Each structure stands twice: as structure tokens, then as C-alpha cells.
Amino acid sequence: MITMASSLEQLRQRLALFPGVGPKMAERLALYILRAPDHEVHQLLLAIEEARRQVIHCPVCFTLTEETPCRICADESRDPRVLCVVEQAAEVDAFEKTKAFRGRYHVLHGALSPLDGIGPQELKIAELLRRVHADQVKEVIICTNPTLAGETTATYLAEKLHPLGARVTRIGYGLPMGGDIEYADELTLTRALEGRREI
Length: 199
What we know:
Elements: H1 2-16, H2 23-35, H3 38-54, E1 56-57, E2 64-65, H4 71-74, E3 79-86, H5 89-98, E4 103-107, H6 125-134, E5 139-142, H7 148-161, E6 167-170, H8 186-194
Parallel strand pairs: 3-4, 3-5, 5-6
Antiparallel strand pairs: 1-2
């Protein structure tokens, strides 16, 4: 029983390392895995192994892909002179679902956070600057998250990009569709006012 309990605890601890998974959720996932039929667990392990083997970073934009370059970078109909800069690959998918952007992407793989030891060298910033220069990019849309790290990154990128001659823009922030103004925080309302446009 001691061996089983320590194995369960080890599984729970490993699952708790996943982003957004706290101790309670890790425990629920561990118990689900233990109760699941063998074939389901086997399929899960195969899927993890296959993804680890097949998924790579695109050598151009650094998103996750199984082809090189990724389908977006290889798409001739997309404008290579307009780049959308995001923190993580998942954000590329979020923008793609809108079908509103027809340029290309650049994934930084994080945001500047000196307290966490994340400086420009830990991100794909040098690659972005080389790309903007080499591809004669006309506009860089900075789409980092509205956090302290995201804002710091946006400011840093703008300072580095302006001398290259590209137009640097920032996505607007504001109220989500269906949201109530009375529940919005001050920063969201401020951003909503600052990002206003004519209708």
C-alpha cells in the first residue's frame, strides 16, 4: 500500500506541474487516470509520445507545427510584411479563429520578466528584429498580454522596432462582448476609452 500511495502522489505531483492545474485538479486527474480503462491510458501515452516526436517549432515564426515551415508561413496568400507578435503559440490559434488577420505571426515564447530571469535573450526577440529587417516588414502588431510583463515587452519591442522603419501598433484593449461595464476593472475601462475608434 505504501508503494501504491507514493506512486499516486508522484503522479499527482507531476500533473500539478501543468499550467493551470492546481493540487485538487491534479488529484482528480490522477484518480481518473487510475480508473480509466487500460486502452484509454495507452492511447493517451501514445498521443503524448507522438506529439513529442512530431511537433516542432517553425523555423520562421516559432509556432508549433509538424511541417517546416508551418502552413501559415508557407501560405503565399498571406502578407509577409505584416507581423502579429504574440507571446505563445496558443495565441496564434486564437487569432486564426477570428479569420480577421491575413498577415503572418512571430511567437516570442514568453514575455520579459527580469524578476523571473527572463530577459531579451530568453525570447525570440533577436529573430524578430532580423526578420523585420530582412523581410522589409511594414507593420508589426504587438499582441502581448495586458499584464505587467506583456506591457514591458511591448514597450521594449517598440523601442527596438522603430529604428527599423516598421510601423509599430498595439492591439486595443477594452470590454469583452457581453461584459457588463459595472464589473469591469479600472484598467480595462481605461484601455477601452484609450482604444476607442470612430463608428
